[in-house]
Inverse folding.
């Protein structure tokens, strides 16, 4: 067997201690909650009668996390044998560090987080993972008990699997955006991509009420903070984007933005129809 010289591990000091951003005594539910009440879409493939029966069995303990660093190792360990941690509300960031570079992924309602199993001998590069909560979040602990309770209703398991596929698709879009050569185009595309999920329609455009710092935006699109700051200044001067770390506003439509930057037709065809429709 080849020697494993590095592994993918959970980041941050004190990973074996209780998460610092969450006080269990105050934020963890003392009893299981009905998951189908908290996330009704999980029962979308059930008829009314089946849903009522499944509701009594599909229960999970819930915990909350305020904005700030969140160490998920212990929480994820509780889900061994089950689907994982289901995000019920809020927004958080998952960071992955390789050497001195960090990339980020935004995670929100409906996403499923799972513990990474050690793959002995398969990795040669160290990958440190960490998390930070952007907006107050709640999670459902879907553990082995939960998996056993919902065995009679594969519709719930299939719905959770589809959530994983959606998250992979979001990551694929983000990777394609990060491959664009012009930083202004990358920033516009990632803001519109996030706005499709978190944005709110306003007269003349969309508002993205997420505290996205220049550093975080850089980690989403593969750029350094100073370059992001200069690119955002140019986009603001052009009347396309304005705002700050407390939220961003996108004026006009994504097609107008790309036209103003002289983006190619190939780039414009990559814009999801749903984003273009909502921006009109």
């Amino acid at each position: 067997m080849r020697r494993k010289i590095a592994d993918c591990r959970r980041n941050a000091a004190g990973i074996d201690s209780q998460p610092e951003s969450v006080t269990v005594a105050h934020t963890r539910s003392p009893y299981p909650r009905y998951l189908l009440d908290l996330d009704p879409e999980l029962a979308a493939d059930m008829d009314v009668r089946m849903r009522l029966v499944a509701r009594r069995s599909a229960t999970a303990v819930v915990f909350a996390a305020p904005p700030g660093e969140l160490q998920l190792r212990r929480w994820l360990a509780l889900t061994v044998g089950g689907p994982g941690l289901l995000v019920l509300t809020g927004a958080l960031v998952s960071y992955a560090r390789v050497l001195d570079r960090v990339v980020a992924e935004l995670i929100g309602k409906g996403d499923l987080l799972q513990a990474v199993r050690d793959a002995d001998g398969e990795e040669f590069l160290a990958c440190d993972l960490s998390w930070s909560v952007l907006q107050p979040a709640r999670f459902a602990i879907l553990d082995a008990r939960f998996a056993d309770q919902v065995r009679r209703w594969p519709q719930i398991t299939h719905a959770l699997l589809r959530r994983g596929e959606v998250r992979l698709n979001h990551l694929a879009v983000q990777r394609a955006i990060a491959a664009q050569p012009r930083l202004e185009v990358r920033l516009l595309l990632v803001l519109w991509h996030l706005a499709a999920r978190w944005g709110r329609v306003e007269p003349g455009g969309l508002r993205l009420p997420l505290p996205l710092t220049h550093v975080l935006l850089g980690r989403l699109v593969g750029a350094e903070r100073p370059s992001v700051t200069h690119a955002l200044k140019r986009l603001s001067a052009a009347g396309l984007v304005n705002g700050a770390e407390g939220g961003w506003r996108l004026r006009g439509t994504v097609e107008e933005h790309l036209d103003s930057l002289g983006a190619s037709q190939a780039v414009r065809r990559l814009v999801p129809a749903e984003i273009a429709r909502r921006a009109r």
User: Anything to note?
Assistant: Residues 1-26, 264-276 have pLDDT under 50 and may be disordered. The first helix runs from residue 24 to 27. The radius of gyration is 20 Å.
